[in-house]
Design a protein that fits this description.
Length: 177
């Protein structure tokens, strides 16, 4: 059974969005992330993140685009219906049932990208197994600063710290028990 890993990029001042303007995917931290995600069982996305990524990635090229476009995407939504494009399927039923069923069915870990309401809901229901925050060595000074949205407190326990030559630090947390 795979784990559901919530993964996010952040700046020193806590900015997580808009990622595209400041994140630097090159370097040893990018290689590490790429390798992990290329072995994964897919992405888990909320509707807003799915729609944003689907509007961007299909027209991109390169190794990241090849990975992101090909990987299976599992989308939670109460407003979308029918078949989805971009190698995506809707999660069926309540997330308390669909997420454990998905984790049991796929080979490898699943990566949750995006923040906000969906990620917070998964966290409060104990469905996220691990949190990864790639802390980038810069201050952006503007943008969204809430990893799980502006909803409430989620306690976590530090599991690991990995330092990269690029200056990025990967903070890995487990749900606080």
């Amino acid at each position: 059974m795979g784990k559901l890993i919530a993964s996010a990029q952040a700046t020193l001042d806590g900015v997580i969005d808009p990622v595209g303007e400041w994140v630097q995917p090159d370097g040893d931290h990018g290689d590490y992330s790429f390798e992990r995600q290329s072995r994964s069982g897919g992405f888990v996305l909320g509707r807003k993140t799915y729609e944003g990524l689907a509007a961007y990635w299909p027209s991109q090229t390169g190794k990241w685009a090849d990975l992101v476009n090909a990987i299976p995407k599992h989308v939670a939504s109460t407003t979308l219906s029918g078949g989805l494009e971009w190698n995506a399927t809707l999660l069926n039923g309540a997330i308390e049932e669909s997420i454990p069923r998905l984790k049991a069915a796929v080979d490898g870990d699943l990566f949750l990208h995006g923040s906000g309401e969906f990620a917070y809901t998964l966290a409060t229901k104990g469905l996220i197994d691990e949190y990864e925050i790639y802390l980038n060595p810069l201050v952006w000074g503007q943008g969204n600063v809430h990893v799980l949205g502006d909803r409430g407190t989620i306690a976590m326990a530090l599991r690991d710290v990995k330092r990269f030559d690029s200056g990025v630090v990967l903070l890995t947390y487990l749900p606080h028990s």
